[in-house]
Amino acid sequence: MEWSDCERLTEALVFAAARHRDQRRKDADRSPYINHPIALLQVLLVEARIQGPPEVLIAALLHDILEDTATRPEELAERFGAEIRDLVLELTDDKSLPKAERKRLQIERAAGLSPKARLIALADKISNLRDLATSPPPDWDLERRRAYFDWAAAAVEPLRGTHAELERLFDLALSRRP
Ligand code: NDP
Ligand code: ZN
């Protein structure tokens, strides 16, 4: 990555930390939400050694910002460019739809994701399965945790053939299904 890409990556981290500042994960400790976008960066850059294109790493840090904060797509475009806005939009669920419908649509739309969005979607599922195995929401019973693993497996199936190491990491996380 160029120096200017490192700058943009750092700006995305600072921006995401600010926007997610009042949000917590669903684990018993209510961890800071920003740990999750950081986990995606770790999976992509450190574990899977994906060093570019930079948009993948930048959009990974911003992937939940439209879904979970008051940030608007136009603001993302102004700060980070139209490509980042479009990548994050690809990864954003329509929260006006019922939960079950959103889950179904993610599976249906997975095959149509762009190559860059597929990498981020894989890292997202890896991070969430790991969290569910090690620090699940305390009010989720065994059945619900298992149902999430099964849904994640179905959502990743159309993404296979994207990146061997990411898929290996996903399968490893999936193998910890409770
Ligand atoms: P949710 O979508 O409500 O919650 C899971 C999401 O929460 C993750 O995708 C992740 O999204 C985020 N998250 C935050 N903290 C954690 C954490 N510690 N561990 C893992 N994820 C975290 O879950 P679902 O509604 O999908 O429930 C899972 C399954 O259980 C479903 O398949 C459903 O069929 C079944 N079920 C659902 C019920 C319901 O009321 N919804 C009731 C009973 C069963 P992000 O990456 O965006 O942060
Ligand atoms: Zn996420």
UniProtKB/TrEMBL annotation:
<feature type="domain" description="HD">
    <location>
        <begin position="33"/>
        <end position="129"/>
    </location>
</feature>
<dbReference type="InterPro" id="IPR006674">
    <property type="entry name" value="HD_domain"/>
</dbReference>
<dbReference type="GO" id="GO:0008893">
    <property type="term" value="F:guanosine-3',5'-bis(diphosphate) 3'-diphosphatase activity"/>
</dbReference>
<protein>
    <submittedName>
        <fullName>Bifunctional (P)ppGpp synthetase/guanosine-3',5'-bis(Diphosphate) 3'-pyrophosphohydrolase</fullName>
    </submittedName>
</protein>
<keyword id="KW-0378">Hydrolase</keyword>
<dbReference type="InterPro" id="IPR003607">
    <property type="entry name" value="HD/PDEase_dom"/>
</dbReference>
<dbReference type="Pfam" id="PF13328">
    <property type="entry name" value="HD_4"/>
</dbReference>
<dbReference type="InterPro" id="IPR052194">
    <property type="entry name" value="MESH1"/>
</dbReference>
